[in-house]
Design a protein that fits this description.
The chain has 405 residues and is mainly beta. The chain is built from three helices and 30 strands. It has helices at 24-38, 60-66, 303-308; strands at 2-3, 21-22, 87-89, 103-108, 114-119, 123-128, 136-141, 147-152, 158-163, 169-173, 178-182, 196-198, 204-208, 213-218, 224-229, 234-239, 245-250, 254-259, 265-270, 277-282, 288-293, 298-302, 316-318, 327-330, 336-340, 348-352, 357-358, 373-378, 384-389, 394-399. A four-stranded antiparallel beta sheet has the order 3-30-29-28, with no helix packed on it. A four-stranded antiparallel beta sheet has the order 4-5-6-7, with helices on one face. It is globular, with a radius of gyration of 21 Å. The chain starts with a strand and ends in a 6-residue tail after the last strand. Residues 1-14 have a biased composition (Basic and acidic residues). Residues 1-26, 38-69 are annotated as: Disordered. Part of the small subunit (SSU) processome, composed of more than 70 proteins and the RNA chaperone small nucleolar RNA (snoRNA) U3.
Length: 405
């Protein structure tokens, strides 16, 4: 039997005050039912089922109905126009669980209509996305573990989380309701584990270390496969969309490209004009690499030229920010690049691709609602955009060009 009172993150599963103990089988069934009910159906990764498609009716009623379901929807076929981005403010993603602690991670579930919000209040919370109330599904509290980063695995079945001053990596199985700490990875000598990336295919976990090291782990076993070392300090890392390459940005503005299988350096180049790199991102379609610097400049490169040339020239340098670029995120259709700096209020811009021009209507600076952006994400089919700030709010916006979640 499982004592529900001793597990803070399971209290939401209690149907009444007298239900203090549940069998493991009953608890797992309850977790599964609650999670699937809140998501509006059984997700593809939990159970194979027939998926519904949306109609072409553009009425408000049909759109609301569409946003209640998961599945393979029909996307807008026309490309996103530049200039003005049609969007509206939604209820904060975490409005049902308010906090004043800094939001360190906000991420949409890869398969279901769910958003995760995590922060320095030691908690990870899951919310159903409906754009209106965004009901809370569940909160997981990690004692004395302020969240530095939390991330869904590629299949959406687990959440990985690291803390500010700890070498422990927590793995939370959402369906089983099981929280597993990974205390020590054999061969990994890092004293603190904070920054990490998960490969798009779900096979690898990349941990940023000190002294120029990046460590590649097996996602399944959490065992060390091998390490890569650059000159200087690792400022940011990311995988290519096919999970075959790793891009590592160094503190002195160089970018290293590694082969995942051999951990061999395929190429390295200097990011033009970058004296101190802070962030790097690759597009989902394998076309672009974006590099953010401490000066506020974002260089957008053609990915092929970065692989083949020792001195590639950026397609465009985006100069709309004046403080260090701490966040870079491409939307799934590679039509928008979100750039942000947490060093200044309202320092978020959305860049149209392939024109590389900034949308003029975001943010609305006079309203000053964003404050300092800490983390950003787009939903799986770009229908929503979320920004987490230092005041504990996970702001959410509906992008009208995209007809589904």
């Amino acid at each position: 039997m499982v004592d529900m009172k001793k597990n803070r993150f399971r209290k939401d599963m209690m149907k009444n005050a007298t239900e203090t103990k549940l069998s493991k089988d009953k608890l797992q069934k309850r977790l599964k039912e609650e999670f699937q009910h809140a998501m509006g159906g059984v997700p593809a990764w939990a159970e194979t089922s027939k998926q519904k498609t949306s109609s072409d009716d553009e009425s408000e009623e049909d759109e609301d109905d569409l946003l209640q379901r998961t599945g393979n929807f029909i996307s807008t076929s026309t490309s996103l126009p530049r200039g003005i981005l049609k969007m509206k403010n939604c209820q904060h993603a975490n409005a049902e669980r308010p906090t004043t602690a800094r939001i360190s991670s906000v991420q949409f579930h890869p398969c279901a209509q769910v958003v995760m919000v995590a922060g320095l209040d030691n908690s990870i919370s899951l919310f159903q996305v409906d754009g209106k109330t965004n009901p809370k599904i569940q909160s997981i509290y990690l004692d004395r573990f302020p969240i530095y980063k939390a991330c869904f695995t590629a299949n959406g079945e687990e959440v990985l989380a690291t803390s500010v001053h700890s070498k422990v990596l927590y793995v939370y199985d959402m369906l089983a309701g099981k929280l597993v700490p990974v205390h020590q990875v054999r061969g990994l000598k890092e004293k603190v584990v904070r920054r990490f990336e998960i490969s798009p295919d779900g096979s690898f976990l990349l941990i940023n270390g000190i002294a120029g090291y990046s460590h590649l782990l097996s996602m399944k076993t959490k065992e060390l496969i091998g390490s890569m070392k650059i000159n200087g300090r690792v400022s940011a890392c990311t995988f290519s969309s096919d999970s075959k390459k790793i891009y590592t940005s160094s503190g002195d503005g160089e970018v290293y490209i590694w082969d995942v299988n051999s951990r061999r350096c395929l190429n390295r180049f200097v990011d033009e004009g970058n004296l101190r790199a802070l962030s790097i991102a690759t597009s989902r379609n394998g076309q672009y690499i974006a590099c953010g610097s401490s000066s506020g400049v974002v260089n957008i490169y053609n990915q092929d030229s970065c692989l083949q040339e020792t001195n590639p020239k950026p397609i465009k340098a985006i100069m709309n920010l004046v403080t260090g670029v701490t966040s870079l995120t491409f939307n799934p259709t590679t039509e928008i690049l979100a750039i942000a700096s947490r060093k200044m209020k309202e320092a978020v811009r959305l860049v149209h691709l392939p024109s590389c021009t900034v949308f003029s209507n975001f943010p609305v600076v006079k309203k000053k609602t964003i404050s300092r952006a800490q983390t950003m994400d787009f939903s799986p089919r770009s229908g929503y955009f979320a920004v987490g700030n230092e005041k504990g709010k996970a702001l959410m916006y509906r992008l009208h060009h995209y007809s589904d979640f």
